[in-house]
Amino acid sequence: MAIYNLGSINGDWFYRVRSFPIDGETVAAADCKHGLGGKGANQSVAAARAGSEVHHLGAVGGEGVWALDLMKSMGVDMTHVSIEIAAPTGHALIFITPDGENRIVIFPGTNRMIGDGDVKAALAKARAGDTLLMQNETNGQVFAATRAKARKMRVVYSAAPFDVHAVQEVLPHVDILAVNEVEAQQTAEALGVAITELPVSELLITQGAKGATWHDLKTGETLSVPAPKVRAIDTTGAGDTFAGYFCAGRDQGLPVAECLELAVGAAALKVTREGTSEAIPTLTDVRAFLEEIAG
Fold first, then answer.
1. With pLDDT > 90 as the criterion, what percentage of the chain qualifies?
2. Strand 3-6 with 54-61, pairing
3. What's the predicted TM-score (pTM) here?
4. Distance (Å, whole) CA 33 – CA 193
């Protein structure tokens, strides 16, 4: 099977600060680094490092070819990423405090310039049972989800950054909704239903340091996995790592409990490392980490 990820590609700029600036305040950064990011890129890299065949759908500017090359080197097929010479690649400014927490400002750039024709061409090669993964940092989610469902693909929607209107539009075409606790409550309130009555087959809720919970909303089955205790250095991309690993596990036919365990373990290991895409652990690293903490 394979995963097709309609996702953002960003150049990330990281600034380490003692505290987040308040209104009117200027703070000096102790360090500045540049790297690959974007929720889409992070999730594609995570799924590839978890062992799945991953095809990324997206766009970069002419100055963003380095991101394509880097993602290729990490095992992601970039055939369906277009290069828009007249527009800049998406980028993010990420401020990180000593406890590993972050605040992020994103400029979408070419992430909002993905053509329907490009999506259609990419999904033409998809087979029944393949996965379409999406987030909210690009355009084209509803078009892609509609095409995917017509091809009998599994549609996984990581509804972040959260936008209630975007969620309402795409939810009728979604099989698995992946959100954090706050986003789950916001979605339920917007639709006027209980969280367990959301109109999807499966609900995946990340709970930060507490772990994650999976709900089968058709049968009522629920599984929860606690997160290993680690010292967080940088939480950027932890949720993306989780989503990519969970999708890879499902793509490979693993039991849901194992998918959750690997995804939670991968996210926990990720936050012990600086950076985003490049810091996402391999499946070998994750399994070794889980064996170590279990022993």
1. 88
2. parallel
3. 0.93
4. 43
